[in-house]
Design goal:
Length: 314
């Protein structure tokens, strides 16, 4: 286990460095001049020259990357052009919002997708299986922005049960916070639940056809015990991989969903930064997202060892 983790950590470091180089290089391809954007409406040549010198914009690309990555390693990701705030502070302020939304969406997805996948696999070829697949197909084919608008019309406009948009920090009012976050969390969890259901069903069908499962049934073990202890545990490995990737995608920011519900998370921060050519914010958010994906893959590998005993063999 320790040797495996050390090998994975040795691959993570160059992967993060390569990702940061790609992010910085692609950022330079975006249209517009940061110095002109920061100089204001008058665009004074002296101000533009000062900005270029201050942010090393006249230096070659490798030199600029060195300045940027050196600042990142010390916690300095630059300053937002539009908000005039440090990028690191903006990311830290938006992270709890996106993290809460991602956790709630994943809980909804797991509570819906995994049981549906198990029930569908156990009842393979029956009307229950067809109904579960139909629900999963609906979840996969329904656009998040359309579902969000429909839920707002139903629960906010027609019934008046939930707020249509906005965000209340949980430290101020936990009940209002949950009321404001439940709709966007369900919209995101709905699409992930459909994917979870399909993967869980496929993995369960493969495990149910295994010899050791037939042996367990022949020994007279209760069906529930066989399904939970023998089938679901072995079928969980691909589901863990999928869950880690989907959770990383949620942490990167659900652009459309956060825009529809006016949730001030990573997605809205990214959209505003792109429209305002706030390059430092874009670089910081994308780098944070890429690092999160890599770390979540490491956590998924650790979970494999805890779930599947075969992987712990030398």
């Amino acid at each position: 286990m320790l040797r495996f983790l050390l090998r994975r950590l040795l691959t993570i470091v160059p992967t993060v460095i390569l990702a940061s180089m790609i992010i910085f290089a692609l950022q330079q391809l975006l249209p517009g001049d940061p110095a002109i954007a920061m100089s204001g409406e008058e665009k004074d040549p002296e101000v533009i020259a000062f900005i270029r010198a201050k942010y090393h914009l006249n230096e070659p690309l490798p030199i600029r990357y060195g300045y940027w990555i050196g600042g990142v390693l010390t916690g300095d990701m630059g300053v937002s052009i539009r908000l005039q705030e440090p990028v690191a502070r903006l990311i830290v302020s938006k992270l709890p919002v996106t993290l809460q939304l991602a956790v709630m969406a994943m809980i909804i997805a797991l509570l819906i997708g995994v049981p549906m996948g198990v029930i569908s696999a156990v009842n393979n070829g029956t009307p229950v299986d067809y109904a579960a697949n139909a629900v999963a197909l609906w979840g996969l084919s329904t656009p998040n922005f359309w579902l969000g608008i429909m839920l707002i019309l139903l629960f906010s406009v027609q019934l008046g049960w939930l707020p249509a948009s906005g965000y209340v920090p949980p430290t101020e009012n936990l009940a209002e916070n949950l009321r404001a976050m439940i709709l966007p969390a369900f919209v995101l969890g709905n699409s992930i639940a459909a994917v979870m259901m399909r993967h869980t069903r496929a993995a369960m069908l493969q495990v149910l056809a295994s010899d050791y499962v037939r042996t367990a049934h022949a020994k007279g073990l209760p069906p529930t015990t066989v399904i939970i202890r023998h089938c679901l545990r072995n079928a969980a490995v691909p589901v863990i991989t999928l869950g880690a990737l989907e959770f990383g995608q949620l942490l990167s920011g659900a652009l459309l969903t956060e825009q529809v519900f006016s949730v001030p998370g990573f997605g809205k921060l990214m959209v505003d930064a792109v429209f305002n050519r706030d390059y430092a914010v874009v670089q910081g958010v994308v780098l944070c997202t890429a690092t999160t994906y890599i770390l979540l893959n490491l956590l998924a590998d650790i979970a494999y060892f805890l779930v599947n005993p075969k992987l712990r063999r030398p």
